[in-house]
Amino acid sequence: MVHHVGDSNCINIAIDGPAGAGKSTVARKVAEQIGYVYIDTGSMYRAVTLIAQRAGVTADQTAKLAELVRSLELELEPGEQGQSVFVNGENVTALIRTREVTLQVSHFAANETVREVLGIMQRKLAERKGVVMDGRDIGSHVLPNAELKIFLTASVKERALRRYREVTDSQTVSLAQLEAEIAERDRLDEQRDISPLICASDAVVLDSTAMTIDEVIYAIVKLSRTKMAEAK
Ligand code: DC
Questions:
Q1: What's this model's pTM, rounded to 2 decimal places?
Q2: Which residue lies with its CA nearest to atom 5 of ligand 1?
Q3: Which one of 71, 139, 165, 171 is separated from 232 by 20 to 30 angstroms, measured CA to CA?
């Protein structure tokens, strides 16, 4: 399922940070440049949310949610256009990006069993090294031994603006509304009891507010090459 390319798959790279900081674009491009596999863990929480919504299971129905997540067959497939997500054989890559899922995902991501099951899957995916994994708790919790940890952040205003430009849903949403939603998602991700969004003590903090995507990618690729050389 996960294909490794190149011959320097000797480290793992964790990229954490708040919503809209540019993690997925940056992580995907970094992986591409160094021949690593990109794993978007947010997509896994989104897939659980979509399936729960379809089944009419809410985030507070702990027992039902646990059953649902344990029976889920989740597959991530790296591809040219980024990562595709399959649940029980169905391609849900586009469906997990709707606002309906986005607005609810923090609540499902706060569930202990959901985090436990997805955390186990994530560690398994990183077992052979050579992955660039983005999320909220990768450096602090899922892969505490990752050789390179990046905490990528940007101001709420800048992150809202970036999301505003990329909203693909047909319904219109104002910039102010997006800003409020991002601030609320930060709050929920930072304040949940289990694996909250925190910066690992050994992470490199990159504030991308005034940086271009290419500058961020360049900085991370450079750090990666240094870590790879050290690990050889
Ligand atoms: O990065 P994203 O917007 O696709 O993430 C979706 C949600 O999943 C977000 O609210 C935070 C949560 N998440 C998490 O709690 N832990 C992760 N490792 C990745 C995402």
A1: 0.90
A2: 42
A3: 139
Which domains does the chain possess? 12-218 (3.40.50.300)
Decide: 109 in ligand 1 pocket, CB within 6 A: yes
Please answer whether residues 116 and 72 qualify as being in contact, where contact means their C-beta atoms are separated by less than 8 angstroms.
Answer: no
What span, in angstroms and rounded, lies between the C-alpha atoms of 203 and 186?
19
pLDDT at 120 over 50: yes
> Is the distance from CB of 38 to CB of 222 less than 8 angstroms?
no
pLDDT digits (tens, 9 = 90+) for 58-98: 999 999 999 999 999 999 998 877 899 999 999 999 999 99
The C-alpha R_g of the chain, in whole angstroms, comes to: 17
pLDDT, tens digit, for every residue of 18-46? Answer: 988 989 999 999 999 999 999 999 999 99
Residue nearest (by alpha carbon) to ligand 1 atom 6: 42
**Distance, CA 1 to ligand 1 centroid (Å)?**
22
189/192 Cα distance (integer angstroms):
6
Nearest CA residue ID for atom 18, ligand 1 = 135
Cα of 41 vs centre of ligand 1, distance in Å, is 7
